[in-house]
Amino acid sequence: MGWGPTLGVVLLTAAAGMGAAAGLANFLIYWQQIPNREGASGYFAVTLIGFGLAGGIVVGLITALLVRSGFWKAQGFALGAVVLLTVVAGILAVVLDDNGPTLDGEKLVAEVELKCPAGWKPDNKGKWRDGSFCWIQEKAADGPQEVNPIVLGAFALKENDGQWSVSCAVPLTKSSKNRYLRVFVGRRADVTIRIPLPARPKAAHREWSPWSANGFLAQSNQPAAADYSFRYRVQAESAYDREHPDPAAAFQEARQRALAAMPKDAPVEQWLPFFENERGQAIAYSAGSYPEVEAVKAQPLALIPLLRSSDAATVRRAVFAAGALEQIPGPLIEPLAAAGRRTIEMMREARAGALPEDPDLGAEDRAYTFFFYWKLAMDRAGAAGAAARHAVMEQIRQAAGEGSGEGGIRRIAEETGKELGH
Q1: Residue 254 lies in a domain
Q2: DSSP string computed for 29-54
Q3: Shared-domain flag, residues 211 and 146
Q4: If 128 and its partner were Cys, which of 73, 75, 290, 361 is the partner (CB 3.0–4.6 Å)?
Q5: Quick count: other Cβ atoms within 10 Å of Cβ 401?
Q6: How many whole angstroms separate alpha carbon 102 and alpha carbon 173?
Q7: Structurally, how many domains does the chain consist of?
């Protein structure tokens, strides 16, 4: 067979390889549930089609050189080889697909309890909701996620009779015996533990292991953690979820039950708790009808004494409720503006709880959240509330100063400065 037919076999087989790879990519995207987020599925498909093109060229060339009895016969063998290789690749992808170990057909969670040294205490960042976290990484040494993938887990910091401990729970997404737990608690703890679980845990691993001081590893520029101990076990994901219900979901269930039990003519004060979520932040309302919002709309001036309350929680919730109104009526402007000074008190409380090089980021976040929704509520007062809003803004700006770091007080300083032209 001459070079012309040989080239034809190579080109047709290359095209067939691309088509087969496209079909395989479509199947694997569905099978492995590869998301389209940031183009992940698209990149996967393009990569696989590239391999299909290269494989088709190689298969076509080898077949054309080996089968010299005619173009159509060589082409038939080449296409058969492409189909066979595609089927084998698909079977191997399914058989070797690792979605993590299971027990009794259920996916598993690795639980680790880390006991901190005697006398150890978390810093402010460690107590902050976003200041502590844990994950399982594939390699012992820390590195970019591209070469050392991580799986984030649930984190809880506990104190009992002066002894602090950390609880971590991370889904086991891979069947690997190399599992390294990385735990951060603010700036006070950065611990790496090798969890001595087999690639596929057995039923016996559902029981807690003995406490151990071995298995702590060093990271770059720091030694291995000392005077810590840990224990571990695995649990079915369903069992773990039952023992540790999602706080947001539990809050929503309780909220819906309480709303259903509320009399329609209840005083506004009784509706206030429904304007914030489990983290003390305002509920974000979309289009629609909400009983708590309708209750406040029916008697908005009932918010006046609540905005002037000496109870901080009542003032916060009243501000959130005011922000749910489409327009702030005139008599509500002055008490709402005055309630904004609570931001100054919250910034003062945050600074009082700060330590050198360790701001109280949780308290700063609460101050910023209150300020943000107060400002949002004052926007609903329009031009009639501009003067009162400006006066309180000036006071908040002066109290915030320049702010520091990346915390809530810094954001308050930046936003008030921008609005006031400072």
Answers
A1: no
A2: HHHTT---GGGHHHHHHHHHHHHHHH
A3: yes
A4: 361
A5: 13
A6: 10
A7: 3
Sign of the C-alpha dihedral computed for residues 60, 61, 64 and 66 taken in this order? negative
Q: pTM of the full predicted structure?
A: 0.71
Give the H/E segment covering residue 11. Answer: helix 3-31
Same domain, 179 and 301: no
Q: Is residue 129 part of a domain?
A: yes
Phi, psi of 223 (to 5 degrees): -80, 170
Is the distance from CB of 7 to CB of 65 less than 8 angstroms? Answer: no
Q: How far apart are the first and last CA of the chain?
A: 83
Position 243 in a domain: no
Q: What are phi and psi of 151, to 5 degrees?
A: -130, 115
Q: Both 275 and 413 in a single domain?
A: yes
- Tell me, yes or no, whether 346 and 375 share the same domain: yes
pLDDT tens for residues 364-410?
999 999 999 999 999 999 999 999 999 999 999 999 987 667 789 99
Tokens of 343: 């931001």
- 69-101 confidence digits (pLDDT tens): 777 777 787 788 888 888 888 777 766 666 788
Among residues 335, 300, 320, the alpha carbon closest in space to that of 366 is found at 320
- Does 275 share its domain with 194? no
What is d(CA 86, CA 11) in angstroms, rounded to the nearest whole number?
A: 18
Which domain range does residue 352 map to? Answer: 263-420
Which amino acid makes up residue 91? Answer: I
Is 193 in a helix, a strand, or coil?
strand
Contact 81, 73 (CB under 8 A): no
Helix (H) or strand (E) holding 114: strand 106-115
